[in-house]
Amino acid sequence: MGEKFYIVLSMLFLFAVMLVGCKPKDNANVVSSNKTWFLYQDQGENDTVSIKFLKNQRAEVKDISTIDGKVGINRFNSQFDNPQYVLGRDGKTITFKTAKNNLVIKIIKSYHENVYGKHMKGYYVESGGQTYKFAYITKRDKQSNISKSQKQKSQSIASNQIMDHVLDVTVGSKKLNDSTLAGNYDFSTIINYRRTDGNLTINEDGTYQITLTEHSAQKLSDDTDSKVVMMTSIESGNVQNLYGKIYLTPKNLLTINYYYHGQNQERLLPKSVNLKVNSKATGNQIDRANIRVEKDNDQLYLYSSDYTVRVKDGQSNTKATLLTKSDVAQTGLKDAITQTKDYYNKYKAEPLSSNADLMQLVGAISDNHKNKVGNVGVNY
C-alpha cells in the first residue's frame, strides 16, 4: 500500500513538472497574438514604435509619433524587407533583426494603464538600457463633446500670451552622445508639394531647433521654385537616443502664415501666428511624423515621411534629406515671436511704402472679405 502511494505521488509530481515546463513563455505569448503592439515611454506622446507580428517569423516594425499613429517610417532589414524576429531561450527576450542595429526588448513584468482614453495592456520591458512600456490597446473610451471642444481650444493661444506658453527645451535634455552632431545645417525638401528651405541647429546640450520656410505648392516637375512664401515654422525640442537611433522630439512649434495674393516678398504681411506645445498638461498638439538624424558615408541625413527628398549633387543616400553644414545661426523661437510682433505693429503704422505694398494690402483685404474690397470683386 505504501509503495503504491509513493508511486502515485511520484507520478503526480512528474505530471506537475511537465505542466510547468509546457507553460507558454512570455515572449511566445506576445508573438502569437494578432494585436498591434506599441513600444513607448511615459504616455507615448513623442516617439513610439508599433510592432505587428507576421507569418514566417517576421514583423512589421514602424516608427510613429504617438500610440495608434497611422503614419510612420518602416524599419526594414538590410534587404529592405520586414525584419525577422528571434525569441530568446529565457522566455523574455525578443530580437528584431533590423538594419544596422537590432531592436532588442526584454520583458520585465506585467503592465496596464489608461493612456488618454486608450486602455493599454502588456509589459514593462528593457531596451537599450532603458525601461519602456510594450502594450496593445484593449479598449477605447468614448470621447465626449466637452473633451473635444477643450482639445480644439488648446490648439491656439492668444497673441499676448504666446511667450508665457513656450516650454523650456533644456528641461530634461541630455548632452549629445556624439558631440560631432552639434552645429548648424541647411537643407532643402518638399512638404505637401511646397518647396521648402530648412535650417537645423543641434546643440551640445541635447536641444535642437528647425526653421522651415514653405513656398506655394507646385508640380514636382517644375524647374523653378515659387517665390511666394506661404508659411514659416520654427520647432524646438530635444535630441533623444531611442531604440538605438537619434530622434528630434518636439516641444514647441511656432507657425507664421502669410498673405500670399499679390504678395510682396520684400515685405511679407503675417496673417496669423500660432504656438502648439507637447506636454503632459496639454497632450500631443504637434502633429508631425517622426524625424530622425542618421550618419551615412560621412554625410548627415534627415529621415521623415513628411518630407519628399530633393536629391543634391554628391548625395550618396537618395532615400533621405541631406544636411549641409552652415555658418548661419537661426533666429531663436522666442526672438521670432518678439520680432514678428514688432514687425506687424510697424506694418500697421505704415502699411504702404510702395506699389508692391498696395497690391499686397488689396490681396489681404480681399482674402478677409470673400474676394472683395468694398463692393468690388478681386480676382488674383
What would you note in describing this structure?
- This protein is α+β, with helices and mostly antiparallel strands.
- The chain folds into 2 domains: 24-140, Lipocalin (Beta Barrel), CATH 2.40.128; 160-370.
- It is built from 6 helices and 22 strands.
- It has helices at 2-22, 26-32, 145-153, 162-165, 333-349, 355-368; strands at 36-40, 48-53, 59-64, 72-75, 85-87, 93-96, 103-115, 118-127, 130-140, 183-191, 194-202, 207-217, 229-242, 245-258, 270-279, 283-284, 292-296, 299-303, 308-309, 321-326, 372-373, 376-377.
- The strands form 3 sheets. The chain has a 9-stranded antiparallel β-sheet with strand order 4-3-2-1-9-8-7-6-5, covered by helices on one side. The chain has an 8-stranded antiparallel β-barrel with strand order 10-11-12-13-14-17-18-20. The protein has a two-stranded antiparallel sheet with strand order 21-22.
- A hairpin with a 5-residue loop joins strand 5 (85-87) and strand 6.
- The longest helix has 21 residues, at 2-22.
- It is elongated.
- The chain starts with a helix and ends with a strand.
- The model is unreliable at 12-21 and 144-155 (pLDDT under 50).
- This is Lipoprotein.
- It comes from Companilactobacillus crustorum.
Based on Cα principal axes, name the global outline: elongated
Strand order of the largest sheet: 4-3-2-1-9-8-7-6-5
Rg is 27 Å
Q: What gap, in angstroms, lies between the N and C termini? A: 105 Å
- Helix amount: 10-25%
Major sheet: size, sense and barrel closure? Answer: 9 strands, antiparallel
